[in-house]
């Protein structure tokens, strides 16, 4: 602001693209982009949601900065009006996406209510660019479930999926067996509507409605000891993964898992989180248009704040110690929380690289 004023006094036009120090605009995309994942050898994958006019899709961002449907056009071809469209073999409603510790690109398909086979976790082999793992979640989800993101255990053998109805799905990737836990826990419940740029987020239920979203963000500490999670309105908890993993075989533990949840940090309304190799959790603040850093000791500070950080969602930490910030530009409102482009992806320097069990 001050710099702009002095430049103004000199008679020059103040730059409107002066972002907060350290914040660098790297991509400007036509489609609203919710998330970015970067493979070990630098390939970039985007999940594109939040559009008023297009269905959600997955694309690879190529080196000439064009995009191509990923893993192919067929997986991105679902058409609910076409009876020959197969919801088991297409993305029906992609949400979170992540490269896992096994090097696969994992896509969470929240699916559609009443469409069998549409809610699933899909694994793409980045060498063959072919889907080689699919876990259908019909049997574990509830009627109001919104399955929307995934993280993995240190062994890479257990998947943790968030369910915005306010629950966690624990999935044994070896057997395909899954349990839905924390559904009755306050720690997974949206106890307040979300905030966006100073006000409550409007809901889908008419003029006076507000949007409240349950358990959404999840992270696993780099040593695999803790699972962090929170409802979208914030209030982050952590719980030992040993207890979480036991729910796969111990029905009593599945019932009482919430008793083991520890309050961790009073985080704000959030679009997305990520974690670095030192175990710092980054939390996008949809209200102050900022990114918070929460240390493993639970000390929370604002790392960077800028009006351009509009609904930053699925962030990524790269090996060159940068935090990648897809500011999805989602603007809550009567369109039902959708935005059209342009969409910006920023980077911001941090002190650590990726977590070995989170980013391949
Ligand atoms: C693609 O975008 C990157 C990041 O902004 C930029 O460095 C590069 O020059 C662009 N490449 C082309 C071919 O436009
Ligand atoms: C979806 O399917 C319907 C019925 O077959 C067809 O009329 C429509 O053009 C399709 N939409 C797209 C985008 O392909
Ligand atoms: C979906 O699956 C359920 C349970 O297997 C079955 O009863 C139902 O008929 C299926 N619906 C469709 C549309 O295939
Ligand atoms: C991906 O495919 C390659 C080539 O077939 C194979 O060597 C590799 O093990 C696969 N990756 C995973 C994670 O299974
Ligand atoms: C996952 O399933 C495999 C195969 O059934 C089993 O050996 C393993 O113990 C299970 N893991 C957990 C954590 O329950
Ligand atoms: C945030 O709110 C302020 C105050 O009403 C307004 O000036 C600004 O344009 C808003 N920003 C966005 C991105 O909506
Ligand atoms: C199952 O979990 C309950 C609740 O935490 C615990 O008391 C019990 O010892 C566990 N059972 C086994 C076999 O580990």
Automatic annotation (TrEMBL):
Entry keyword Metal-binding: no
Cleavable signal peptide: 1-18
Protein family according to the UniProt entry: Belongs to the major royal jelly protein family.
InterPro entries on file: 6-blade_b-propeller_TolB-like, MRJP/yellow-related
Cellular component annotations (GO), alphabetically ordered: extracellular region
Protein name: Major royal jelly protein
Subcellular compartments: Secreted
Keyword terms, alphabetized: Secreted, Signal
One Pfam family matching this protein: MRJP
């Amino acid at each position: 602001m001050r710099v702009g004023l002095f430049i103004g006094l000199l008679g020059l036009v103040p730059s409107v693209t002066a972002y907060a120090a350290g914040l660098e605009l790297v991509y400007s995309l036509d489609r609203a982009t919710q998330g970015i994942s970067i493979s070990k050898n630098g390939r970039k994958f985007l999940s594109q949601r939040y559009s008023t006019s297009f269905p959600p899709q997955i694309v690879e961002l190529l080196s000439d900065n064009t995009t191509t449907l990923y893993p192919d056009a067929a997986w991105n071809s679902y058409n609910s009006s076409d009876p020959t469209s197969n919801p088991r073999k297409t993305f029906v409603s992609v949400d979170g996406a992540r490269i896992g510790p096994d090097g696969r690109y994992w896509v969470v398909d929240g699916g559609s209510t009443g469409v069998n086979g549409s809610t699933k976790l899909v694994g793409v082999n980045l060498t063959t660019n072919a889907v080689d793992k699919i876990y259908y979640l019909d049997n574990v989800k509830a009627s109001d479930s919104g399955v929307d993101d995934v993280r993995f255990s240190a062994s890479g053998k257990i998947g943790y999926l968030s369910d915005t109805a306010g629950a966690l799905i624990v999935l044994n990737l070896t057997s395909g067996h899954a349990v839905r836990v924390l559904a009755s826990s306050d720690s997974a419940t949206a106890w307040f509507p979300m905030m966006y740029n100073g006000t409550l987020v409007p809901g889908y239920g008419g003029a006076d409605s507000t949007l409240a979203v349950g358990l959404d963000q999840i992270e696993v500490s780099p040593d695999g000891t803790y699972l962090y999670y929170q409802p979208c309105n914030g209030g982050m908890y952590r719980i030992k993964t040993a207890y979480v993993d036991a729910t796969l075989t111990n029905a009593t533990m599945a019932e009482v898992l919430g008793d083991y949840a520890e309050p961790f940090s009073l985080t704000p309304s959030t679009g997305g989180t990520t974690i670095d190799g030192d175990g710092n959790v980054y939390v996008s603040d949809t209200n102050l248009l900022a990114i918070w850093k929460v240390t493993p000791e639970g000390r929370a500070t604002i790392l960077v704040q800028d009006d351009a950080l509009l609904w930053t969602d699925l962030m990524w930490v790269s090996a060159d110690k940068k935090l990648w910030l897809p500011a999805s530009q989602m603007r809550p409102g009567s369109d039902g929380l959708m935005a059209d482009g342009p969409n910006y992806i920023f980077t911001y320097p941090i002190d650590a690289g990726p977590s070995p069990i989170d980013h391949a």
